[in-house]
Amino acid sequence: MNRASFLSDDCPPMGIYETLYAFREGFGQFMGAPGTHPWSQGFPLTTQLDGGPELPSSVGVTWEDRFYPKAWGHPRLREAICEHYNGFYGSRLAPENVMVFAGGRPGIYAVLAFLKGHVEVRIGNVEWPAYLDILTQTQTSWKVVPFTPENGFHPPNAAYFDRSGLNAKTHLLAILSNPGNPTGHTRAGAELAELIALSEQEKNGILLDEAYEMFHASKGVSGIRYVKDIDQSNVFLAGACTKGLQCPGIRIGWIIASRKNIETLANFSSFGMGGVSHPAQLYAAELLEPGRVARARDAVARHYGMQRERYGKAFASMGLKVHTGDGGFYHWLELPEGLEAGELNRRLFRHGAAILKGFDCDMARPHDKEPGYRSPYASFFRFSFGPLPPESFDSDVALLRRVLDEYRADFAKSGVARAGRAPAAR
Ligand SMILES: Cc1ncc(COP(=O)(O)O)c(C=O)c1O
User: If you classify domain 63-292 with CATH, what class do you get?
Assistant: First the structure.
């Protein structure tokens, strides 16, 4: 008899990893191995982009770097992060507004772990799968904001701060990825200014996840441009070296917030984290050298803009509905009537490919995959062109078209499939 585990029974892997593990079961190899098509994966190219800067190949480590790191981050990196924002967006951040983490996720996790009990979260119905796990594990209360084809998967800013039915003591924290993962919808210009103005109002705050900051024609979207007084706010910006700086393996991310909120996060680091690897932080400081970042901004916007456009056209031509916004490196797609992303994935696995099911991005689904729950996004999926080199376009499109055509034909033939057909997706 197995002894009952001391650890939680409600700790499944994040949806994207679940797809990875199911893929390995189905295909017998890890996604990412040669010959596989990593359309489900959210990593960028980690090699030099056309016209982009070189990626540093080493970093010097001295005796000082073997000391314990500072709880809040290496002074050089905190300075470099401030300059990154102040230089491009005209903000006035000080190093005391910056807390360094080992990647984007730990920073987001820490913010939610220390939320006061009267703060509730509002999050879009379609967001990055990890948020659902983090919200659940930190026992945060949240409600979803509708994301539908009718509102273009892009509800108005005010929907995040709707106070109907709330009592006076409840405060609201909006969580948005911007540009959005998986939808690519992006709030920029006046719309982003309005979102930040709402977030700076009393009883409101925001965790604006800017992991995809550079993946937009403007070469950079950040709420920091519009923040009036970060120190008097509950605005939290999350950034990382993971996407635009092309270094997911370096594991450096950060949170920008008021000095008071950063102090709490740094105190957490002192007992729960012990700071972040010096070599990784020094490497990140090199990545953030302003001339380098300027070239990266150009190259990222150009390469990924080109990929977004041509993949979008190809998907529309094969009968998929394209609901994608104008940022990020994902397409948010809807299958023709009756087809489901779970079955599409099973068929793709046989060819060494996978997508991310819309179900996994549904922030209203039960965390433990409760049987009987029907997600409104069963016929939706996310296609990632983040890791795809320009040369794979033709073969990627041909493979998806072939598998989709076969699935559509089988579905049309099969009375059984029709009888078991899902209700309309919304
Ligand atoms: C929306 C979003 N935020 C943050 C991150 C950064 O994650 P990390 O730096 O932990 O890999 C990702 C990466 O997938 C993401 O998609």
Answer: alpha beta
Instruction: Report the alpha-carbon distance of residue 391 to residue 256 in Å, rounded.
Output: 37
Show the beta-strand stretches assigned E in 203-280. 204-209, 235-240, 253-256
Q: Is 356 in the pocket of ligand 1 (CB under 6 A)?
A: no
User: How much distance in Å is there from the Cα of 96 to the middle of ligand 1?
Assistant: 23
Range 15-48+302-410 classified under CATH 3.40.50.620: no
Does any ligand 1 atom lie closer than 6 A to the CB of residue 248? yes
Count of CB atoms within 10 A of residue 318's CB?
15
- H helices of 1-92, where? 15-27, 75-89
Q: Is 177 in the pocket of ligand 1 (CB under 6 A)?
A: yes
Euclidean distance between the first and final Cα of the chain, in Å? 45
* Position 425 pLDDT exceeds 50: no
Ligand 1 atom closest to 103 (CA):
9
Judged against a pLDDT cut of 70, whether residue 283 lies above it is answered with yes
Tokens 């635009």 label which residue?
Answer: 244
Of 132, 79, 125, 78, the C-alpha closest to 265 is: 78
Report whether residue 215 contacts ligand 1, using a CB cutoff of 6 Å: no
Of the candidates 234, 205, 222, the one whose C-alpha atom is nearest the C-alpha of residue 81 is 222
Residue spans of the domains in the chain: they are 15-48+302-410, 63-292
How many CB atoms within 10 Å of residue 48? 13
Q: What is the pLDDT of residue 415?
A: 58
DSSP H or E segment with residue 248: none
| All residues at 6 or more sequence positions from 169 whose CB lies less than 8 Å from its CB, including other chains | 118
> What digits encode the pLDDT tens for the residues 29-79?
888 888 899 999 999 999 999 999 999 999 999 999 999 999 999 999 999
Binding site membership of 240 for ligand 1 (Cβ less than 6 Å): yes
What ranges in 200-277 are assigned the alpha helix state H? Answer: 259-272
Residue type, 17: Y
pLDDT digits 0-9 by tens, 177-205: 999 999 999 999 999 999 999 999 999 99
Buried b (16+ CB within 10 A) or exposed e, 134-168: bbbebebebebbebeeeeebbbebeebbeeeeeee
